[in-house]
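Continuing from the previous page of notes. For each protein in this section, the sequence appears first, followed by its structure tokens. Read the first protein now.
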Amino acid sequence: MYRDNERHRLFTRRAAVLGGVQLAAAAMLAGRMYQIQVVDSDRYKMLAEDNRINMRLVAPARGRILDRFSSPLAVNRESYRVLLIAEQAGDVGRTLDMLDRVIGITEDERSRVLREVRRRRGFVPVTVREGLDWHEVAKIEVNAPDLPGIAIDADLVRDYPHSIKSVHVLGYVAAVSETELGDDPLLQLPGFRIGKDGIEKTRDLALRGKAGASQVEVNALGRVIREVGRVEGVPGNDVRLTIDIALQTFAQDRLGRHQSASAVLMGVESGEVLAMASTPAYEPNQFVRGLSADTWRSVVSDPMTPLLNRCLSGLYAPGSTFKLAVALAALNARRAWPGQRVFCKGFMELGEAQFHCWNKHGHGWLDMEGAIERSCDIYFYELARKVGIDRIAETALQLGLGTKMLDDLPGEQEGLIPTPEWKLASIGTRWQGGETLITGIGQGFVLATPLQLAVMTARIASGRAVVPKLVIEGGSAAEPPPEPRFPALGIREAALKSVRRGMNAVANNERGTAYRYAIRDPALALAGKTGTSQVVKISRSERGTRVLKNHERPWRERDHALFVAYAPLEKPRYAISVVVEHGGAGSSVAAPIARDILLEAQRRDPLGADAGDRLTWVEAAPGQG
């Protein structure tokens, strides 16, 4: 009896404990349910809504790039692409076979689509091809019943209306690479493109704009049911350039007769770059669509380097165009005067070395104006010896040589103005007297870009420290911003006038090296300086034998042809530099190009005529010049 009572009490205690535990658990469960359904109901309702509604970014329209008169250089055009939705297609291979019969599918496209289909969910569209023309779209739509899972989608793509004519200024856009992915969520969007070169690259952030958003309802698998809301993105800012596309096209076409050449045309007072032409060039619209690996390799391995903007990245010995800097250095330091005469017998000696003039018979007695007019090497050997390398370097830097000048484009080279300190630090040997003489005619170590040569010419013409400009900030084509007033160059006006007289004689005196290609209209006449830059050094052993003429050598061993000029003579408005790689003599190859471009610029006069008047004039006289 006692044991039965004891077992009963033990059972009762255990039942009570178990009941208490169950009651506590039920209370906790009820409390938790209350917290979830009442206290935190708003939070969980929001989470459930987030699972149902997805927010997706919408890429904005990229800003346009315009020329100085607001003519479009880079725009967005509607493009069509064909998509494949695997779950609707069923047999993907069969659908691709059918599509191949309609528009033709390459093996690369087919393998890429199959790879993407395996990686993605069946309801996610896969792009088969972009950039369809209207004829292809129509063929797909007509055959739609036989193409299950195939859909046409419209999109905006970058387009360059002038193609290769302005590519080295504009650059191009292309898909974002893995190394370029950053914090901007726009970069994560499939098919989003960013600037890779030129203005497209340096102004990329301004051109991108701000993303919009699309609210879509999805099911548990992530499939889109419907769009419930949409906020369009903010288009990117337009960028207006100083370039005149009519002159840019003219310059590019004019250079196109040569394998490799460049030209820079700029305003003497404003520094605005009106044309920056470089050839060979490349097709930017191909880069937008995307290049195959083979095509990309062929472009980057092309020995003519079409991707290179020679105006900024091409480094050349300036040849006799550098004699202008040497003359200014001597005159400004009062180590020479305009009437000082030097006798040229065809060569001069320095120690045991002989330094020859391009005219082996010599020029006889010449003053400074005559030496510039006839480009006498002996005169400038003597001038360089008198003034010294340090003053030459100082003046060259004042003229804009050896300095990066333009922040608006990538890839600009600094050039080189050599000094004894530079040579000792870079090469480890002392400066020699003969190197001063060679520098005096623009050979040796000295290197410059075509842009720097144009800036040098503008500074000589204006007497001011002109800085090149490519982007117009503010203003409009109807109301351009006021021209900047650059500080004085720091070179005596008397020295500048003497050099200008020599440049005038180069083109407008019968003995001048560019007289044959002068502008005969006095109101449009130019002043300039020819230059020929040696590519292959003539050895001492070759001097006693017949040296091959320039046109007889292999193309890559021929001299570079250079010419710098400004126009008109009174109140100069335009400055230009032209470099033709392996072109031969600057007087016969580069000078006529510069003459034609300067003549066209003055006829159009983009720096002087009102935009409306200019457009009317061009329509009235297309192709003139």
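Done with the first. The second protein uses the same format. Note its length before scrolling.
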Amino acid sequence: MNLMESVESLKGIGPKTAAVLKKAGIKTLRDFFYNLPRDYENFSAPIDINSMRPGKVVVRGKIDSLSTRPSRRKRLSITEGVVRDHSGAVRVVWFNQGYRVRQFSPDKEYYFTGIYELKNGRYQITSPSAALVTDVDLNSGFSPIYVAHGSIKSNDFRRLVNNSRERFAEIPDLLPTVPKGTRKEALFKVHFPSSAKVAKEGRDYLAYEELFELILASKLNRQENEKLTASPVPFNVEKIRDFVSKLPFKLTNAQRLAAWEIFQDMEKTTPMNRLLQGDVGSGKTMVAAMAAYEAVTAHLQIALLAPTAILATQHFEGLSKLLSSFGVKVALLTGATKKKEELKKKILAGEIDFVIGTHALLTDDTEFKNLGLVIIDEQHRFGVEQRQKLALKSPKDKAPHLLAMTATPIPRSLQLTVFGDLDVSILNELPKGRQPIETSILAEIDMKDKLYPEILRTVKSGQQVYWICKAIDDNPTTETTSVKSRATKLMKLFPDFRIEFLHGRMKPNEKDEIMERFATNKIDILVSTTVVEVGVDVPNASLMIIENAENYGLAQLHQLRGRVGRGSVKSYCYLITSGENHPSRRLLELEKSTDGFYLAEVDLKLRGPGEIYGALQHGALDLRIATLTDTKLIHRAQLDVEKFLQNDGNMLKYEELRAGISKYQQLTTLN
């Protein structure tokens, strides 16, 4: 079987069905067989209707009295019917699923699975799934549920898979190192399981397969990097010792270790490919400054790429102040830089040692004489092509050493897989004088009594406040408070305070001006969307308020909280919840811990790798089966990848595998 064939080669799939599937991304046989069930229903023991108790139920019966009517709420329709078995009848209700009226035949029996509950004084089964009894394997009573694709509902796709049952035997293996079992067996078990245990066996095999591809891609990236040549930077112990002795503060042990790892990398003739990850305020920029100074001692140029002009400016102001006393010539290059052409001539002539900038560094006319070190701040903000474009500005026969920095702590399992081609340095200590941020969950109704006095105290003591809102404009269909309306309310409450708002639809120079005013203490309260998540260092800001906090991911909440606590004054963060629901686990975890590495592991478990990876780097990880919390499976796949590369590293022989890992290589590579 050629898995790259069109789905139209399968029984029962004509041009119309194929067109619907293709819209959903199911174009080839591989796409079809890997469109796995999202869940399973167990129909082996349906309950009599007159024996039901509130909770999840499975009943078997015929349905009648089907009708659809509009609800009093806008854009909502209600479809209802009555399911009957030998013991009684029960009302069933669906929302915005008008097709259900046409789905059922009154003379056929179906299994209905849903929540039996009391609603508006009547018991009903709410939003049940349904399966024709004759479509269910009565030997197991175990039936897959698929995601609907346009007009092709779960039942329809299950029928298509049933039609192709005999084709599973033709599926070839993907992996050169095959674990126990085969791919065709694994896929068959997932689509036609006789029990939950059998379905898990199939998914475990496919999860291993995904991890093998991902780890192999990162290992191949590492091999490619090792073929490149870089200018070695000899460790200049005297100059570094002098540099450290003149710093206005003492380095943490974590900073010392990270700097030593970087110096060792830069001594080699293969380019450094290192990720420096540290929690907010852990001192990554200082480590980068030491790396830059070391490169200057070897007569190499350095480029630091930052995601925003204001962050680039902040880096420039801090690093030029620090390095100029050591004779390092530092320049800033952004879209707003005056006399750009003159500066670019100096960079090309080698008169500038260290260039800090934004996307302006990537233009074709920005050329270097001897670029030897590239530093990328918040590297996930830049795509692969952008990072590579900067790396290609080094001399033609050399690749630059590369140091990427991120303030988003990366879970250990992601380091072993997605970032497996990188060496990782971790800053897990805060500099002396930093106090942990005290975090509290606060209900919206308690803001007046508990939060407003805290704002008053903070501003009157000369400190500043961030107030984060989810929306830019008011939306009548949601209860989310917008930036504009919150700023207006605060201006009425605190007429003597300087209050401004900030959001992503503003022009870049307008955003920069507002952040500049906040950084220079010309604004008391800044009401903003998450555009401040990665931004300027404002040590004077000591109060962070995040409204509708339940609408944010854990990593993002931690990043926002990290905007305060950057000075010597005690800082506070309030997570404002709306409604009467109990706070979510992620809010409770954030309230009890300020450890970004611990929170990253929790976030991975709560959200899964795809969303986490999407926040770290452009591109979709798209792991369909594997969970990056399965460290045993990761370890096994790592060992098998090592064996494969030692014994049979010729990827040309494995066409399908090569195509799969090339996607991961593009997503994970830094150089």
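What the second structure shows: The two ends are 37 Å apart (CA to CA). Residues 237-427 form a domain with the Rossmann fold fold (CATH 3.40.50.300). We return to this in next week's lecture.
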